[in-house]
Amino acid sequence: MSPRLNRFIRYPWRPWQGVPASTRSATRGFLIALSGSLLTLGLLAWDLRERMSTVPSDASRPTAEHGFSLALALVVTVATITIVLLFYLRFRALARAELRDLADLDAAGETLRALLGTVSHGVILTDLEGRIRLFNPAAEILFGRLCEETLALPIEILIPDLRLSEAIESTRASPGLGSQVLHLSGVRADDRQFPMRLLTRSLTLDGEDFRLLIAEDMTDLERSEQRMEFLEQRDPLTGLQNRPTLERILGAVTPLRGKNPKHALCLIDIDRFKVINDTFGHAAGNKVLEQLGQIAKTKLGAATALARLSGDEIVALFVGDAASQAKELCEDLIRTTRNFLFTWQERSFDITLSIGLVVFDPARVSAVDALGQADIACRAAKQQGRDRIHIYGHRDAESIRHRGDLALLPVIGRALSDGRFRIMAQPIKPLSGNDQPIHYEILVRMQDEKGNAVVPDTFIPAAERHILMPTIDRWIVTHVFSHQSEQLAAWHKAVPDRFMLAINLSGTTLMDDGFTSYLKRQFAEYEIPYASICFEITETAAVADLRRARTFMQEMRALGTSFAVDDFGTGFASYAYLKFLPVDYLKIDGSFVRNLETDPVDRALVSSINHIGHVLGMKTIAEWAETPELIERLRAMGVDYAQGFGVGRPLRLEDLRLHRALRQDAAVQPRADALARAVVL
Question: Is the pTM value of this prediction over 0.70?
């Protein structure tokens, strides 16, 4: 039955190619009845002939007897014809019904063949002895065998680990168990094994028990799971452990007992890696990281953990006795890298490394803190000339400064999250006429956990060195826009061609590719007029990446904002750079302004900067104007604006009111009064 069913599923059985069984039975019955009728007719004919033979030829036959025989023969003949006709009609009806059933069965077979052909899983039907009775096309592809090769074969040849008898017994013991799912290995025709998930259940067809197996290839799924597991623990570029894995390992580091309880941690950084990316492209930088990862695996094989921390930084952890080899292994890595010629698209270049090494006792210093010390040592190695290893020391003055940065970083982060930053606004007074509005520069102050003020010169450089200023600058922009949106709109309506607030942007913020789009979203969200905002960029930040600074300034200036170069004269810039930057205001550094009255050199520098600024079409702002006499001297020199304690001390942003920014003289009195009444804060 099962081989015929399998052949029927794979090869259609056309009903006109054979006579149905019921039709054959009807035919046999008809032939028997017809034979009986003919035999009866023959017997009557023989009897009539015998009767006629006994009568003398010249004797007269009885008319009645002769008529009876003829009538009997006629009845038998009619009965025979009737039987033949009835059997013919019955035969035709049975044949048509059988053909209809076969046509329906053939259609069902076509549907079943289509279903089994489109199913992506292998479908196998076995008898209770485990011999294969049905094998669909997906199973052929899965196991690499044709159906004809597998019919009647034991299923154990394809699935060696399958214990079909045990599955059958468990099903009999628990009839309500239903399907069973097993994870086994299958064997292909070339004897290669593959993982598979097998669903098995009992099936009854025409009173006969079978076992239905549905097989699913798990090779791709297992590869995906292995890939996901790899990505959870490894860096996909270098193959080294990733940062989360390293953090878990560092968190699990515990003190050791024995002669050498100390560990060693080194941080490896590629010198001038940004130059490689900018010159050859990021693909070349990735290739360098990949090759360096392979070299580090070879040279630092004694490390307990070897991970890519971020960017071009690699961290190695040496535990116990291996810690004593750390310095020697790192020096060998530096020599190997120095002598290794990196190539990219037929171009070659040299690579050097700076390594910071720290030896620590986990009983006194946590591994996480040791990582910060290794970072300090790595920075010290770079400042000492790169291509070297620097061992962290507590008396290292440079390390102490960086260590102070690291101690300050969490304070800055908590101050941001706890809202302990304060925004101040210091006035910028126009020196040419009394009808000009007063501008304000936004300043930021920070408080520690005890409420003590932290000097900006302390936390801002640390935040810039450790790339925290983009976060702080974003917080400042959002805070100012959300609290001053109405006043900025009113200001723009009264003074559409002047800015009200000047906001400082750090150099690291200018390097943030997403800052421009963020800034535009803030302007749109709070409906801030672009012309009411001026951005201040330090001279050093602008020159550090002149192309990027110019692109940012041009894009935002086209929308209506203005720009000022802050602290001009203290950096490395020259007057030539001002020709290429779309600057509206030039802020003269306070170190030149403070001693303007007594120092002729400072006076000459201020005069020169003011003159060049005016020639380039810029307005000039003098910082640190702390006395009325100094303000008058600046006015006499033609400086446009002054800023400092002599002009006004910084006030809280919450205390800033529109009437303080607009001058209250006759020229603007009606407009200012109207705005003051319109804006109630």
Answer: no
